[in-house]
């Protein structure tokens, strides 16, 4: 496996100056990001299908062991505050259980039975999107979970940093970022981990865009859970509708804090009209605005 190779270039790394070591690390991070470029078409295809399934009520399921599992958890936990993705539509299957997020659990990644059980116990089905992440692409836990999910009709996405890895054969949407050998041999928290995070950032963000949770580059579905975010909501309503601050504040109040509803209210809709337009457009603000404009004519 390329991610496990030892590079003679770095065999005396510990004798280098700190700046030279950091430069090597930095260059490795840049190459990790560059390695994602060729996977963009695969990411786009995976996101397109995922949005269709999730609109039917499906869940996003992150599967992984060790570093890969933790990176998946990081990606998923950012979706509720950023895009107001429902917490009950997220599932995390981590080898060794939830405790493995904070502390390594030895040998957990080798358990095929645990991977299968995680899928079965969560009743994964055809509307669900299962994302398996493994730098080696050979993790038994993750591959077993993907295979079981596929057998149940779920969409399966496999992310690996090694070409020809089994995980890429075990899923319907293989995504490869061939990051090669690490500066510190086998330390896939470095280049491989960076590429995985970039892929998950791109994948989940595009899914949310396709689901109408972004409008004009703005997080119109975010949860305004503090003063900073409430202020951001007001600014976004003003930006979208070109209204003044007082109108934006009042619209948000009438909307019960829902930013999309507030935008329509600021455009002249009643709360009932705004909610109706959003319901007809499945929450897509662009479509709801067009719908409301038609009713005004």
UniProtKB/TrEMBL annotation:
The keyword Lyase applies. Residues 50-213 form the SIS domain. Keywords: Carbohydrate metabolism, Lyase. GO terms for molecular function: carbohydrate derivative binding; carbon-oxygen lyase activity; ether hydrolase activity. It holds the Pfam family GKRP_SIS_N. One of its GO terms (biological process) is amino sugar catabolic process. Gene3D superfamilies: 1.10.8.1080, Glucose-6-phosphate isomerase like protein, domain 1. It comes from the Bacteria. Signal peptide: none annotated. InterPro entries: Etherase_MurQ, MURQ/GCKR, SIS_dom, SIS_dom_sf. This is N-acetylmuramic acid-6-phosphate etherase. It comes from Microvirga vignae.
């Amino acid at each position: 496996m390329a991610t496990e190779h030892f590079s003679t270039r770095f065999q005396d790394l510990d004798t280098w100056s700190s700046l030279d070591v950091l430069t090597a690390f930095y260059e490795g991070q840049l190459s990790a990001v560059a390695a994602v470029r060729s996977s963009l078409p695969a990411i786009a295809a995976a996101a397109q299908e995922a949005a269709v399934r999730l609109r039917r009520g499906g869940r996003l399921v992150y599967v992984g062991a060790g570093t890969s599992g933790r990176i998946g958890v990081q990606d998923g936990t950012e979706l509720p505050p950023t895009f107001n993705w429902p917490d009950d539509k997220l599932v995390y299957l981590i080898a060794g259980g939830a405790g493995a997020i904070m502390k390594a659990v030895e040998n957990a990644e080798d358990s095929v039975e645990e991977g299968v059980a995680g899928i079965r116990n969560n009743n994964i089905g055809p509307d669900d999107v299962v994302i398996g992440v493994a730098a080696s692409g050979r993790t038994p836990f993750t591959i077993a979970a993907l295979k079981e999910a596929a057998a149940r009709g779920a969409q399966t996405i496999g992310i690996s940093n090694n070409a020809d890895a089994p995980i890429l054969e075990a899923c319907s949407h293989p995504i490869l970022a061939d990051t090669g050998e690490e500066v510190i041999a086998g330390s896939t928290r470095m280049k491989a981990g960076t590429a995985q995070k970039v892929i998950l950032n791109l994948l989940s963000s595009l899914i949310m865009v396709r689901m109408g949770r972004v409008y004009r580059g703005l997080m119109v579905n975010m949860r305004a859970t503090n003063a900073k975010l409430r202020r951001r909501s007001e600014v976004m309503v003003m930006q979208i509708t070109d209204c003044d601050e007082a109108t934006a504040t009042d619209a948000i109040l009438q909307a019960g804090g829902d930013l999309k509803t507030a935008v329509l209210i600021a455009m002249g809709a009643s709360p009932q009209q705004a909610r109706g337009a959003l319901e007809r457009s499945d929450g897509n603000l662009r479509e709801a605005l067009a719908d409301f404009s038609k009713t005004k004519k």
